Amino acid sequence: MAALPADQSLSADKDRLMDEFSASGRWIASRARDWYERLPWLVGANFVPSSAANQLEMWQAETFDPEGIDRELGWAADIGMNSMRVFLHDLLWSHGVRGFEDRISRYLDIASSRGISTMLVLFDSVWNPDVALGPQPEPRPGIHNSQWVQGPGRALADRADWARLEDYVSGVVSAFGQDERVIVWDVWNEPSNLNGGRFAELTDKWELISELLPQVFQWVRAAAPSQPLTSGVWAGKTLYDDAHARIQIDNSDIISFHDYQTPERFEAKLRDLPRDRPLFLTEYMARTPGSTFEGILPIAKRERIASYCWGLVAGRSQTLYPWDSWSTPYIEAQPDPWFHDVFHKDGRPYRADEVALIRAITA
């Protein structure tokens, strides 16, 4: 075919872009569906190695554990998992760009060598808002995710610091926005989560995030990644009870959500979500309230919903303990059943029948 004249070529490119993006830069639904149809059914976990209590401990040079990461992702791949959701943090980028970028790339190499793609999470409103680099406190005995940290945490209140947050977003997305090892950008995890009074939150956290969240979507889009954007809705009637959910859904290329309920309630939630775009279940599987592999994964496979359980290997994040351990720590004995997690630290499955199910349903 003969090449188009330059002006016609530019016009064709413009028409193509108009066909693929809305005015805000969001992918149109058909592009999102076409992208998703080229992928296998995605099944995986929210991954932090058992050697790390939080995102900082996972990524800081002194505690980065490539051998442990490779070992644990090998266990995941062996049972059929093919994707992971992984949390980053703005402080890591702001205080050592080159080293952090190199460690992200090394992680992605390890995951890719195991046939595992990665969803990267940029910000997170869950757990401790007081964040500092350096050695992290030891996990509090018997308490669920006791040292997990928010990003940006209390820095959210300083609008003068938002330029630093934009530099982080622009930098990390520019570095990995064309990287085939990265499958999705999760812009902000549970932005409206106020953490049930466990921490002294900013009094205007809700309003600040309402202002910043749309800007973060714009920052990511300005870096022109090839991957889609999302932010997972999680509370109540997803479209009506949470003002942040509308921001998340209206700006997401693919729709992601969290659900830790029974299969019946899970199916009810599906009826409350838009179905014109791919659905990603980016958090599920809490045995105590009835969100289990055997209950949820068959529905997810039937509906072709990408599914990421919380936790892979029981370790310093202590997510085998339930949420109520914040008020009643499990000091004397482990909970029965475990709340999250699939493997013991030595690679033994917590429940052999669960591992058999995952292996069979992903085969």
UniProtKB/TrEMBL annotation:
InterPro entries associated with the record: GH, Glyco_hydro_5
Pfam families: Cellulase (PF00150)
Keywords: Glycosidase, Hydrolase
GO MF term list: hydrolase activity, hydrolyzing O-glycosyl compounds
Gene3D superfamilies, per database record: Glycosidases
Span of domain Glycoside hydrolase family: 143-266
Biological process according to GO: polysaccharide catabolic process
Family in the record: Belongs to the glycosyl hydrolase 5 (cellulase A) family.
Protein name: Cellulase (Glycosyl hydrolase family 5)
Originating species: Devosia lucknowensis
